[in-house]
Write a structure and sequence with these properties.
Number of helices: 30
Helix content: 40-55%
Strand content: 15-25%
Number of strands: 24
Length: 961
């Protein structure tokens, strides 16, 4: 009974402490909730995007055509084992109708049964036809519910007929038109002479059909596949065809579509196991059965992808969780610091450390329970925000993904809450070491540095940072999960981001070690300046560095990581745009094939075995090989804003009798600038795109050479280069005059071959006519390649799509790893900024309370309220200003050192165009504005507290405070 009363007594103390410290404990709860939300949003996001990818994969067949997700096709085809009797199909029918549906355990949206014979002959019953040749070879078949998915163009749907009359069958519209068969005509069905089915059966065409909608999920085969099939009612098949032959069934299939909306990665093991078991069962019932369509492989990939994405993003979240954990320790330390004297008194009066810790543990349990309840719903909204992410702090709403809190999410919430609970009682664990005597002694030695400084943790952390940086310099990557392929993807290798994070953390600790020296230097300088507020503020900060180490560390870490993350995002986003437009050249790149006037000539692009110099009188082509519409016709296509011709030729470059394979790009210099525009970067050439193209204006034979080719052969402006060009069927030597060099140009890769850029009309003229060229177009936002190609087709143009920049960009932006990392970093920054602001505001209030007596004495000796406000403003301004300045410096340094190793190296030319690190000063300015607002708010709170302070209370309290 006494133990019971003691427990309730402790519980009453805990509740009173929760109420008395409501503000600070609210901050701790916020930290708990943010930590839980950060962790739980990861599996929710991974499940959502994994489901999106699963649906997309299941929604296409091997040929890329659409098909219903979660569709199953169990099929028997007699090509291997031959036709089978109907009695062997009946057990499969029973199994499919009962056990398969029960094993899959999903709502059935569609179920179709189909069976057919092997090819049979349809002979005319006309006695005048003595040829004996079949009119067609066709299957006899039925498909359940087909009448609901076809349109009867003539006649009626077949009905079951008695034993004596002909069997009614349907014929497809295409086959009826091809053979000229009519409704009502009768034919004799005979089996093949040398194999099953041995059958003789009269049939009558009862109708001609066409698919109502070929895109309906019902069509397990395309409607065209039934052109050689005589379809009948199921009763006719079982009542007339089956008795007429021993082995009527050549093909049998069961096609089922299930509703898989509820399927998640945790369901994949059960479902794949059921699929395996069902396949084993049906093959035992009928050897030769196969599962032609199923989500089996996709489910396995889905399960693996969700698991790996969850692990990957969890590792990426560790620095953010560390930051949140530090915030919780910081605020918990503020709470314990207020109660330090009380703890020391309790310990001196016989209370054990375990009993004191029990009080704090009960408080933390209450806060953790609240976080477990509120964190997962917030994590679900964070996951939704992640699915909208296109870049760092850039979101575009995309509805339709399932955002659900699963059992696994609640487990992870409890785990992270327990971890944060341990972090929250660390300050209390340290405080319980002291009795009242040892506490006073320790406070007298408060100038001693913290433990991490005495152990030189900040210096020791530089060792792994240096090792990681050297690995990146030498190999370009760091091994993760056993993979050490150079040039790894930064979104798939968290170590590439953990190294700069560790760099920032170690230098933050190092800067805190040096901070007192900096403040002493500033104090010496401020002594030479007029005014007392700044001098007193700096001297106070130089004497009490441990008092503000926590807030300034939180501020530096938040600022530096935000600077690094925003700069990384800006750099990778711009590189993505640069790379997409370098590959495509423009918004949409097309190939205009023109109209070939000599179809028997060699194909376009083929090169003769050797260069020929045309004989005298043969240098003119009598008739143009290809005919083209003017490029201005493309401008009349809706959505096309600008268009230019670009001719691409494989040539043989000759300079000073030295030949080398190269690429010639012929352009319309006056038009290309309006199409390429921003896709041409300033580092590609010494001049702007307009200035570079103007070099081609003075001489039709002018040519720009690739910089590496010019350097290799010492080519100068004015030199002549001969290109062997064979675009119109024979090779001709064309002379060009070098007017400049260029480093890079969209679609051209100097690592493959040197390139030349010249006037397209000159290339046409020298070769005797036009040849197929590319059309680079600038299109209006929202214009799709399909719409443009449809318009070109309607206008009779022979055009092929080559590249569309928007597709390249969107494919990368929606990559789960990239979207997840940037989404997590965005949410992490928002959470870190919120907690940093919250922590600093509580620090300001508690700092004022802690210095209440000191400030009262300053008021008593004559300082005015405005002077006191200036003093506190200077202190807070110095802390925030120095924290932001150091954080920015560390973030910019980390960006310049580590972002060059984060290039997404994919494709044949991963290094083109070059990677350029860019610092996101615009976003850094926004962060400065946020923390500037925090300073203003802190000053307002301080002014309110100063206005409420009573001098006599502060003086009388004395050391009791």
């Amino acid at each position: 009974m006494g133990l019971f009363l003691n427990f309730f007594g402790v519980l009453r103390v805990v509740l009173r402490r929760l109420v008395s410290n409501f503000g600070l404990l609210t901050a701790i709860v916020a930290g708990f909730i943010v930590a839980v939300a950060l962790v739980t949003c990861i599996p929710i996001y991974a499940e959502a995007v994994g489901y999106r990818i699963l649906r997309e994969e299941l929604g296409k067949n091997d040929q890329g055509s659409a098909r219903p997700p979660f569709s199953f096709m169990y099929r028997y085809i007699g090509s291997q084992s031959g036709a089978v009797p109907w009695r062997e199909i009946e057990p499969i029918e029973t199994y499919m109708g009962e056990r398969v549906r029960r094993a899959i355990n999903l709502p059935v949206e569609l179920s179709v049964r189909y069976a057919s014979t092997d090819k049979v002959r349809a002979l005319s019953t006309d006695p005048n036809d003595q040829s004996g040749e079949p009119l067609l070879w066709a299957n006899l078949a039925f498909a359940t519910d087909m009448e609901q998915h076809i349109d009867m163009l003539e006649g009626n749907f077949p009905k079951a007929t008695g034993d004596g009359g002909p069997v009614e069958v349907l014929l497809s519209e295409r086959k009826a038109n091809e053979l000229g068969l009519q409704v009502g005509e009768e034919y004799l069905i005979l089996g093949p002479p040398d194999k099953e089915p041995k059958i003789e059966l009269p049939v009558r065409i009862s109708g001609v059909w066409r698919a109502h909608d070929a895109s309906e999920p019902y069509w397990f085969y395309s409607p065209e596949s039934f052109d050689d099939t005589l379809l009948m009612d199921e009763a006719s098949f079982t009542g007339r065809v089956v008795p007429a032959t021993a082995k009527p069934v050549y093909t049998a299939l069961w096609f089922m579509v299930f509703d898989g909306e509820s399927i998640r990665s945790v369901d994949a093991p059960r479902l794949t196991s059921s699929i395996n078991r069902s396949l084993t069962d049906v093959t035992a019932l009928l050897p030769g059965m196969a599962l032609s369509i199923s989500p089996y492989q996709a489910l396995l990939r889905h399960q693996t992808q969700v698991r790996l994405l969850t692990i990957l993003l969890t590792i990426f979240s560790l620095p953010l969780l560390g930051l949140v954990g530090y915030f919780i320790i910081l605020v918990s330390g503020m709470v314990v610091q207020q109660q330090q004297n009380e703890i020391a008194v309790l310990r001196s009066r016989g209370t054990s450390r375990l009993q004191v810790l029990g009080i704090y543990l009960l408080e933390a349990l209450a806060l953790g329970a609240l976080a477990v309840v509120l964190g997962p719903p917030l994590g679900a909204q964070a996951a939704r925000l992640m699915t909208w992410t296109t870049s760092f702090l850039n979101f575009i709403p995309r509805p339709g993904l399932p955002i659900e809190i699963t059992e696994q999410v609640w487990v992870r919430a409890a785990q992270v809450a327990a971890l944060m609970l341990l972090a929250s009682i660390v300050p209390a664990l340290i405080a319980t070491r002291y009795t009242i005597v040892s506490f006073k002694q320790e406070r007298a030695r408060s100038t001693r540095g913290p433990l991490w400084q005495r152990l030189f943790v900040d210096v020791l952390l530089l060792a792994p940072v240096w090792y990681g940086y050297q690995q990146l310099r030498e190999r370009g990557t760091i091994s993760f999960l056993g993979t050490d392929t150079p040039g790894g993807d930064p979104f798939s290798n968290p170590l590439l981001l953990l190294v700069p994070t560790l760099f920032v953390f170690s230098l933050t600790l190092l800067s805190l070690r040096l901070f007192p020296l900096l403040m002493r230097g500033l104090a010496w300088i401020s002594a030479l300046l007029p005014g007392t507020a700044i001098l007193m503020a700096i001297r106070y900060l130089s004497r009490t560095t441990r008092g503000y180490t926590g807030p300034i560390m939180l501020l530096i870490l938040t600022m530096s990581l935000a600077t690094f993350t925003s700069s990384m995002s800006l750099t990778l986003d711009n590189q993505l745009l640069d790379r997409a437009y370098y590959i495509s050249g423009a918004d949409l790149r097309l190939q205009d094939l023109g109209e070939d006037t000599q179809p028997s000539s060699p194909v376009f692009g083929a090169q003769p075995p050797a260069a020929e110099t045309p004989a005298s009188g043969e240098d003119e082509v009598d008739e143009a090989r290809w005919l083209f519409v003017p490029v201005t016709d493309y401008l009349s296509i809706p959505g096309v804003e600008a268009a230019t011709r670009v001719g691409r030729s494989e040539v043989e470059a000759n300079f000073n009798n030295k030949s080398e394979a190269a690429i010639f790009l012929g352009v319309d210099r006056a038009d290309i600038g309006g199409v390429v525009g921003s896709g041409f970067r300033s580092d590609y050439a010494r001049e702007s795109l307009g200035g570079t193209m103007n070099l081609l204006a003075d001489d039709p034979a002018a040519v720009l050479v690739s910089r590496n080719y010019a350097a290799k052969y010492g080519i100068r402006i004015g030199d002549k280069v001969t290109l062997a060009m064979g675009d119109v069927g024979k090779t001709q030597s064309v002379s060009f005059v070098v007017v400049g060099s260029i480093g890079l140009f969209p679609t051209l890769y100097p690592e493959d071959a040197p390139f030349f850029i010249g006037n397209l009309d000159y290339a046409f003229e020298q070769q005797g006519g036009q040849y197929p060229y590319e059309v680079w177009t600038k299109v209006a936002p929202g214009t799709t390649p399909g719409a443009v190609l449809n318009e070109t087709s309607l206008r009779g143009l022979r055009v092929l799509k080559q590249e569309y920049a928007y597709d390249l960009i969107v494919a990368e932006l929606l990559r789960p790893e990239r979207q997840g990392v940037f989404g997590l970093l965005s949410i992490g920054f928002l959470a870190a900024a919120f907690l940093t602001v919250l922590g600093f505001l509580f620090y300001s209030v508690l700092s004022f309370r802690r210095r209440f007596v000191e400030l009262g004495m300053l008021r008593a000796i004559g300082l005015s309220v405005s002077q006191m406000a200036a003093l506190l403003t200077c202190e807070q301004g110095l802390i925030i200003g120095l924290g932001m300045g150091i954080g920015t410096l560390l973030g910019v340094t980390a960006s310049n050192l580590f972002i060059p190793f984060l290039q997404v190296r994919a494709g044949v030319h991963p290094q083109t165009p070059p990677f350029i690190v860019q610092i996101a000063w615009d976003q850094i300015g926004i962060i400065y504005a946020i923390f500037g607002g925090m300073l203003v708010l802190a000053i307002i709170i301080t002014m309110i507290l100063l206005g409420r302070m009573r001098v006599f209370q502060a003086v009388k309290l004395g050391e009791a405070v």
